[in-house]
Amino acid sequence: MLKLFYQTELVEAGCDEAGRGCLAGPVFAAAVILPEGFYHEKLNDSKQVTEEDRYELRGYIEENAICYQVAMVDHEEIDRINILNASFKAMHLAIEKLKKKAQFLIIDGNRFTKYKRIPHACIIQGDAHYASIAAASILAKTYRDDFMRNLHPEFPAYKWITNKGYGTKEHRKAIEAFGLTPYHRRSFQCTSSQLELDME
């Protein structure tokens, strides 16, 4: 069962990102502050939840959280500042927009760039341990999936409607056949010459 809070002295927000490992599209992040007593039996790390349940959870989180925000950093900025910094920036943007000020942050993963003077704890696999991080992972994932689905009609050969920009075999084959789109991350290894080695 997920723990509700890492600590109880300060107002706590959980943060997570989605899309760090994709070949195309932005990285999304969410920050969520949950109330005492928050619970949903299906809430878990977004990767462990079915797509249908993720959208059910999104509605529940948005209705029952004290507050939440979702932010993104696009592929061009990812190429400029690198994906790790872009992930941290997306989290910072989400935290900044929260209607209630967070006093303590719990971050999924083992690294984070400090946001202002707010103390934080990095938690490896935090989305499998803390409800607010799991909620942030659900929001970041579903908002990013929606974004990639909306791009699909523009470039249907890449099947972003199903792979969401991740480096699946079908996505990599489309890159090999048709080249990179304006939404691909140039700093990632997704060019044809590199793919030939990966796909053997």
From TrEMBL:
Family matches, as Gene3D superfamilies: Ribonuclease H-like superfamily/Ribonuclease H
Annotated InterPro entries: RNase_HII (IPR022898), RNase_HII/HIII (IPR001352), RNase_HII/HIII_dom (IPR024567), RNaseH-like_sf (IPR012337), RNaseH_sf (IPR036397)
Pfam families: RNase_HII
Residue ranges constituting the RNase H type-2 domain according to the UniProt record: 10-200
Key words of the record: Cytoplasm, Endonuclease, Hydrolase, Manganese, Metal-binding, Nuclease
GO molecular function terms listed in the Swiss-Prot or TrEMBL record: manganese ion binding; RNA binding; RNA-DNA hybrid ribonuclease activity
Residues binding a divalent metal cation: 16-17, 108
UniProt name for this protein: Ribonuclease HII
